[in-house]
């Protein structure tokens, strides 16, 4: 090695040491954590309680604790929690490194059922201890399997406040990279015995590339009830569904409106914000945030809840947006009191007065003080309401601001809005519409005039629902051009300009940004010949919803078959022209050319086994704990390796794809107390499990088999699976923390998570609350 190379390597190692000492998730030791403008601004606003400002600033300079959340809907959640507490946390409590006692992970006091934990362990400490390295490998592997999510603590709050039930139709407006979306999906699947909940999640993001990070997060949960779409949230199209033979407008029961923001609450993990922060960031974002929020409440069903959240502490992005929204709504919206919803969470009530400051340090307390030269940057909606009676009716104190020093978290703002009636501009718009009926119908190219029929939703009066669809784009224009102008007047002027009511896709220029091009979603017909052999081979029950099966090609051989819920099928079939769908459905079958000679060209896919298995009535082998250990630690074991009961069942089944099913025995608490279902293949004399690597590790850990690579690279696994186990454990351990954070799941990655399990961890930026460390 040359002198220059040695010096370069020395410098790189020195940089790594600096990052290690900074804490888990740090890596910007050279950035000075000072910003006088930030300090002056927040001191003057008085958002931090008196006497706590120094604590607040000290907390902002400390690295953010790493936080993990156990996937709540899976029946394996209790087993994972038991494994964490008994196997890892207990050992860590007794651990000392360099004379320092390690602080064991602690549960978040306000998160239900001990499903979320945080720890202050740094990367350097993790590398110094084999025990902690084992814990880290466990976290990485279980995250890939979808059993654990690494997510910032405050980011977990909005989904909890939505109070989701399995029948809810949910829209996540700005969803990437997807940690909160994953929470929403989990809540839909609260009952694991119901493979197809009535509700669904439509997760949207404006950035086409980030949509694939979103797909990766959602794919880990293997849900048939998630759809990822790519639209500008401020003008996301109104969707239609078929209800009792007629077209109705889709209104959502729950909406998560986690808008783009300046991100000054994320300074603890996004160190760049220290040098980039200025007050002009929030001034630039306020209008977009308000437009997104307006679009959200337009699509919310009466009686529904919308959570508005930011990772900013700035009232311009927080209370100012909420106050403007409440004023526009004229009583149709109200802030919900959530003070008792998350006991244990410390938060500050929303403020009712604030000031604006320019990046030059100029303060304004009222719109009348703003010079006309600044009217394009500063808008009337940024200032607090002057009418005391109206201000009191808003109940802005019901907003929640989380400060970093109170519970060692990031900074965050959240408000819960409940819709009491249709929005006022939806009520009066049709009256203005009558005068321009001809011009508007001529311009209506994206959909039929009759589409928004009366009775669009059971919540709304007939005229409200009709008006809803026709008016959406008009309100959008109102917000863009003149926030302070009464909606009625602007809508009237706008009627001829954009009559489609936001139901069509954005202009073609926007649509093809980033090269949007997706394969089609094609549902199988009732008499599709592909399905005939599948039906007979697996003896599917008569109630199997075969109309919900889709593929991604119009022509040629079908490579994979996916399933969606009945409700998402309804959405897909009625909105293909106005919606840019990136991904939906869970893979249930994969083509296997070898299978044709055994009676079926499609083998079962592990991703969809929990969705599909309730309908399969043949080719099921009931296995024991010991059988699963053999199947997951040996590449292709002989049938004779199985215990007698499973061996006898396997002998009766012909070659081809099979289900390996473990049913827990409540009389033996030492064994896993949750059902396990694996896809497998019955060969001529052998049997194997088709399970992705990290999922294989997950099941082995649940059964008490060690999966860990020590510093010499020796796999500690059952001896009868030494070769397979060692290679796989080494592969998993090679993915260190930096790679996990930096890899991006682009379009070419195998998003279907097959046997190779080509998954990656989401990357975050300043605007995101989720963390992947």
Automatic annotation (TrEMBL):
Principal localization? Answer: nucleus
Q: Could you tell me where the Acidic residues compositional bias lies?
A: 727-741
Q: Where is this region: Disordered?
A: 1-21, 428-506, 714-773
Q: Tell me the residue numbers annotated for binding S-adenosyl-L-methionine.
A: 174-180, 205, 232, 258
Primary enzyme class: transferase
Q: Any idea which UniProt keywords this protein has?
A: Methyltransferase, Nucleus, RNA-binding, S-adenosyl-L-methionine, Transferase, tRNA processing, tRNA-binding
Q: Where in the cell is it found?
A: Nucleus; Secreted, Extracellular exosome
The cellular component terms of Gene Ontology attached to this UniProt record, alphabetical and capped at eight, are: cytoplasm; extracellular region; nucleus
Catalytic reaction(s) noted: cytidine(34) in tRNA precursor + S-adenosyl-L-methionine = 5-methylcytidine(34) in tRNA precursor + S-adenosyl-L-homocysteine + H(+); cytidine(48) in tRNA + S-adenosyl-L-methionine = 5-methylcytidine(48) in tRNA + S-adenosyl-L-homocysteine + H(+); cytidine(49) in tRNA + S-adenosyl-L-methionine = 5-methylcytidine(49) in tRNA + S-adenosyl-L-homocysteine + H(+); cytidine(50) in tRNA + S-adenosyl-L-methionine = 5-methylcytidine(50) in tRNA + S-adenosyl-L-homocysteine + H(+)
What's the domain of life for this entry? Eukaryota
Classification via InterPro entries:
MeTrfase_RsmB-F_NOP2_cat, MeTrfase_RsmB-F_NOP2_dom, Pre-PUA_NSUN2, PUA_NSUN2, RCMT, RCMT_NCL1, SAM-dependent_MTases_sf
Q: Where is the composition biased (Basic and acidic residues)?
A: 465-480, 714-726, 762-773
Biological-process GO terms, alphabetical: tRNA methylation
EC number, UniProt record: 2.1.1.203
Similarity comment: family membership: Belongs to the class I-like SAM-binding methyltransferase superfamily. RsmB/NOP family.
Listed PANTHER family? NCL1 YEAST -RELATED NOL1/NOP2/FMU SUN DOMAIN-CONTAINING (PTHR22808), RNA CYTOSINE-C(5)-METHYLTRANSFERASE NSUN2-RELATED (PTHR22808:SF1)
Q: What is this protein called?
A: tRNA (cytosine(34)-C(5))-methyltransferase
User: Which species does the entry assign this protein to?
Assistant: Pundamilia nyererei
Encoding gene, per UniProt annotation:
nsun2
